[in-house]
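note to self — DONT lose this again. spent like an hour looking for the file last time. sequence + predicted structure for the chain T wanted, 463 res
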Amino acid sequence: MEGGRKEKVPWVAGVEDQLKQYGVDEAKAAEEAQWRKHSVYRVPAHIKKNGKQHAPDDSPYEPQLVSLGPFHHARVELRPMEEHKRRALLHLLRRTGASIRDLAAAVEAVVQRLEDAYMELDGRWRGGGGGRDRFLEVMVTDGCFLLEVMRTAAQEGELGDYAENDPVFSRHGELYVFPYVRRDMLMMENQLPLLVLQRLVAVVRGRDAAADDAINNMVLRFVSLTPDPPAISGGDLALHPIDVCHRSLLHGSPPSGVICKGRQDDFVPSATELEQAGVRFSRSATRSLHDIRFHRGVLYIPELAADDTTEHKLFSLMAYEQLHPGAGANEVTAYVFFMDNVIKSADDARLLSASGVVSNGLGSDEAVARMFNRLANNAVLDKQSPLRAVHGQVNDHRENAWNEWRAIFAKNHAGNPWAIISLVAAVFLLVLTVMQTIYTVLPYYDHHSAPAPPAKSRDHMCS
């Protein structure tokens, strides 16, 4: 700016214009409303890089069989399922007598909310030029496909209007296709908002069937990490299948208080080290991740069924906590961090399997240990996590030498009844020996400590 002339620099003018648009409170409210819209995210490169370290050709964040929603639609390797999606739509319409126009209209009424749910949604899915129509087609078709898959799984062998040899909607499909559908339903970039399913169910089955709890539990029964999951009740409609799964793992009341009183630690030793210090392990009464606690020398941990899908599901749940501020505390991430502390080796995994904490379907204890070691790569424990208080209680117990001595004694002698009998006999003989010694020595001391008789006076002696 020479000669005192002041020119407006474009980027400076842009900032000034933005400042004029909103005050402090208005800007905060606008940002809160903006972030609240999003629930489906593209996974950033740095998170994907960590996930691919365990299997470079098998990303835990991308679908393998079927695309759901716009982010992976029309990918070449996923196109074969498009035919089965269209078949599902036609079967649903024929069986229920519903109108495709009614389904499209029901979803179109909330299409803006659905578009906003996808953060960084490409412009080709929005607005004019057929973009919104294409988006609407994907929402309706993918939604009907999921409804038919979940219906088939719930029928338990009754095929209804599908052929017995159907490659997808049959007993064959339930065995060989549905496991991949479940996996892909829990990929962060492959989410379909449950609002889509709710709108479709309201048309096909009526409003009662489309209640929030009904939709949540319909999805939960299909995607749950655990058999017979407790029903979700009293909450609002979940955002998508990952949110349903996340809620199911955190059912029940969280520990009272954000930070418990007492010692707070970030780490605990491995299971085998804790066992040497007298800590025992037991399966919690529930499968909720809120139910990790330490009481009277016993560390209670919810049961986990570890199989070929567990790692991908936990990766997705951790990504959800990392990307969605509305997910709340990072309790799944904290659980993975905790389990990585406890399971450092095959011996640790074997100990927890024997205690009923891990139901191992991976084939080896070493595989369980490696799974948690991979999952916990770069995982962090929230400073306000209630697990830090559990860590502190466990470490207090471990650092008490008496607990370790007692554990060593129990390990060396509790499993051998003859050793116990010999020990009891030895203690009994030792007590008898001590008592005999006492009774032998006691009269000697009594004799020498007795007072001497009084001496006779000289006068008495001369009389």
